[in-house]
From TrEMBL:
Any Pfam family hit: TetR_N
InterPro entries noted in UniProt: Homeodomain-like_sf (IPR009057), HTH-type_TetR-like_transc_reg (IPR050109), HTH_TetR (IPR001647), KstR2_TetR_C (IPR041490), Tet_transcr_reg_TetR-rel_C_sf (IPR036271)
Ranges in a coiled coil: 67-94
DNA-binding region: 40-59
UniProt-listed Gene3D superfamilies: Homeodomain-like (1.10.10.60), Tetracycline Repressor, domain 2 (1.10.357.10)
Domain HTH tetR-type per the UniProt entry, residue ranges: 17-77
Organism: Enteractinococcus helveticum
Keywords on record: Coiled coil, DNA-binding, Transcription, Transcription regulation
Name of the protein this chain belongs to: TetR family transcriptional regulator
C-alpha cells in the first residue's frame, strides 16, 4: 500500500511528537529567534512541524512554556548562588564560586538564560522572574560588600554597581559563546574571574 503525502502529514501532525521538555526547549529557541511577544502558538506549531493541539497536549498556554524555561534558568542560577554562599573561605573565594557557577549554568542552559535576559516584565510571570534576578544581584552585592570589608575588592564603587557589572560580564556570554567554538565553562569562568579581579592591564 502506498502512503500518500497528505496521510503522512496528518499522522505526523495528529500526535504530540515531542516529550514536554523537548517541546519546551524547542519553543525557547523559537522565542529567542523571533521574540517571545511576537511568537504565537501557531508560529510555534509551524516551526516545530506539529499541530497546535499537539503543543496543547503538553502545555495549556504559551506563558506556561515561558514560565517553565525561566524556572529552569533561575533555579540553576539560584542553586549556584546558594552553593557559592556556602563555600568555605574568603568573600572573594565565594564571589569566584558565584562566577564559576553562573557561567556553568549559562553554558548548560544558554537558550533559557538568553530568554531570561531579554524579558521586559510585561506579565506576572516575567515580573516574578525579574524579581528573582534582582535578588541574585542583591546577594552578590552582599558578598562584594564583605570582600570590600576584607580588603580584597576596591571600595571606591558601591557593591550593587559592582554586582551589576559582574553579572553583566557573565551575561554577555549569551551573545558570543558557542559550544563548538568557545572554551568550556571551566576555562571560560577562569578567564572571567581573572579579568574581573585583575582587569586587562598588563601587570
Amino acid at each position: 500500500m502506498t502512503t500518500t503525502h497528505s496521510s503522512t502529514t496528518r499522522a505526523r501532525r495528529g500526535r504530540p511528537g515531542y516529550d514536554r521538555q523537548t517541546l519546551v526547549d524547542l519553543c525557547v529557541k523559537v522565542f529567542n529567534r523571533h521574540g517571545y511577544e511576537a511568537t504565537s502558538m501557531g508560529m510555534l506549531a509551524d516551526e516545530l512541524g506539529i499541530s497546535k493541539s499537539a503543543i496543547y497536549h503538553h502545555v495549556k498556554t504559551k506563558e506556561e512554556i515561558l514560565e517553565s524555561a525561566l524556572n529552569e534558568a533561575l533555579d540553576g542560577l539560584e542553586a549556584a548562588m546558594e552553593e557559592a554562599e556556602q563555600t568555605d573561605g574568603s568573600a572573594q573565594t565565594q564571589i569566584e564560586a558565584v562566577i564559576a557557577g553562573a557561567v556553568q549554568v549559562l553554558v548548560e542552559k544558554q537558550p533559557s538564560v538568553t530568554l531570561l535576559l531579554r524579558l521586559r516584565g510585561n506579565s506576572e510571570v516575567e515580573a516574578e522572574a525579574l524579581a528573582r534576578r534582582r535578588s541574585l544581584t542583591t546577594r552578590l552585592a552582599s558578598l562584594i560588600g564583605a570582600a570590600q570589608a576584607q580588603g580584597s575588592v576596591r571600595d571606591t564603587t558601591s557593591p550593587k554597581i559592582l554586582a551589576r557589572l559582574v553579572f553583566g560580564t557573565i551575561n554577555s556570554l549569551v551573545d558570543w559563546y558557542a559550544a563548538d567554538k568557545s572554551a568550556g565553562a571551566e576555562q571560560t569562568a577562569a578567564v572571567l574571574i581573572d579579568l574581573i579581579f585583575n582587569g586587562i592591564k598588563n601587570p
